[in-house]
Amino acid sequence: MLLFTILLLGLSILQPTGALVPAGSLKLYGSQGSRSPLVNWYLEEINAPYTLLPPRPNPHPFNQVPVLEDGSSIIFESGAILLHIATKYDEKYEPSQSSWVVWANTCLDPICFKENERGQVLGTSLDQPNRRIDVLEQLLSDNDYIVNNEFSVADCAVASYLNYVPLFNPDANLKNIPNIVKYMQRCASRPKFESAFGENHKQLVLSKCEDYLSGGTKDKKIFGIF
Ligand SMILES: N[C@@H](CCC(=O)N[C@@H](CS)C(=O)NCC(=O)O)C(=O)O
Fold first, then answer.
1. Where in the chain is the domain with CATH 3.40.30.10?
2. Which of 16, 25, 140, 157 has a CA-to-CA distance to 3 between 20 and 30 Å?
3. Are strands 51-53 and 73-76 parallel, antiparallel or unpaired?
4. Residue range 139-149: mean pLDDT, rounded
């Protein structure tokens, strides 16, 4: 009996986090071409089972993506979705991770993407001097990941925005923030990043980052898909 109890306890410790998710309860509406992969990425990092549904029709009040259905709850806004998953299903969640998720949505997003009133990306400020980016650059000088140097939901939020920058801004040159660039590479190299964002996105981030680290002088035409 004792042996059986120890075995059960051992098995429950070894269970991946996703075991906390009731089968079939998480439905994510989105697509690789939107910002929904940042949610896919996190779900896959914590091994949470989910069903990916096409972007439309969806239950988002503004008809946007991503939107998550968890049983009878409907959660929209990517940051709110990440925090919902983190607090409900991630055994390694701790509150300081939440601050970085909100920071990514409210402070980092507008630095990474200058948009017009229709939401079209016109450029980035990530390659310009910025007090907040200096703090992030300093933090990443001796940490691989943002909170307690362990990969968490904070990285899914922060690295997703950073890694969209080369995609939307082929002319940006991030050579002055090498620790952030190495962090972008580190996150893009994670197998679950590739399965969420796709091989092309990953490869583009990796080759642009390599270029930034060697001065950012490569002919921009090699990234011709944009
Ligand atoms: N702040 C929202 C932004 C959502 C958003 O802009 N989604 C885009 C795709 S990335 C969308 O659905 N656009 C279509 C529309 O606005 O009708 C979030 O973080 O979830």
1. 18-89
2. 16
3. unpaired
4. 98
**pLDDT-based confidence at residue 222 (cuts at 50, 70, 90):** very low
Which atom, in ligand 1's list, is nearest to the CA of 67? 20
Please list the residue range(s) of the chain that carry CATH number 1.20.1050.
117-217
For a ligand 1 pocket test, name from 29, 64, 75, 105 the mutation site with the most ligand atoms within 8 angstroms of its C-beta.
64
- Over residues 34-49, the mean pLDDT reads 97
- CA separation for the pair 16, 43 (Å, rounded): 12
What is the third-level CATH fold of 117-217? Answer: Glutathione S-transferase Yfyf (Class Pi); Chain A, domain 2 (1.20.1050)
Lowest-pLDDT range, 10-24, 41-55, 163-177?
10-24
- Helical residues (DSSP H) of 46-108, grouped into ranges: 78-89, 96-103
The pick from 41, 42, 65 for probing ligand 1's pocket by mutation, whose C-beta has the most ligand atoms within 8 angstroms, reads 65
